[in-house]
Amino acid sequence: MADLAENRRARFDYEIEDTLEAGVELTGQEVKSIKSGRMNLGGSYAIFRDGELSLLNADVPPYQPNNMKEGYDSKRSRRLLLHKEELKSLIGKLNEKSYTFVPLRAYAKKGIIKIELGIARSKKKGDKREALKKRAVERDIQREI
Asked: Is residue 121 over pLDDT 90?
């Protein structure tokens, strides 16, 4: 399963506690656009609306810009497809303090577009600095080797 889109910034800004897989409700043009690698997950997140989980702010540009319907919004909210049991357990986790749902990557599984969601907590500024220092030290070690 090759990644079609990845949200690298999410792993830097959030501590990922758990992950889950969800399908996405898309139009045909959006599927073609995503499979050609044009999806952007930066700044996107998922929320509960009317008992359903929705993906907000994920950018899917048109596959053929001259051929799109009028009024197409590339950052429209898209419904995430999960089983009812999974939704119930997620509502319980969301009610806990400071949890958020962050899309980590998009991939194709048996021809169907899936989104890997992370149940995450935001990192403190000090934690981010530690991660940057650790990366710099590892880079220095690799250069010396």
From this structure: no
Name the DSSP class of 123. Answer: P
Mean pLDDT of 137-141: 92
Q: Which range marks the domain in which residue 126 is found?
A: 3-144
In order of 53, 64, 92, 99, 128, the CA distances from 88 in angstroms are 11, 38, 7, 15, 32
> Do 70 and 44 meet the contact criterion of CB atoms below 8 Å apart?
no
What sign has the CA pseudo-torsion 73, 81, 108, 93?
positive
| Count of domains observed in the chain | 1
pLDDT of residue 115: 94
Residue 36: which CATH number? 2.40.280.10
For 105, other C-beta atoms within 10 Å of its C-beta total 20
- Average pLDDT in the 118-124 region? 85
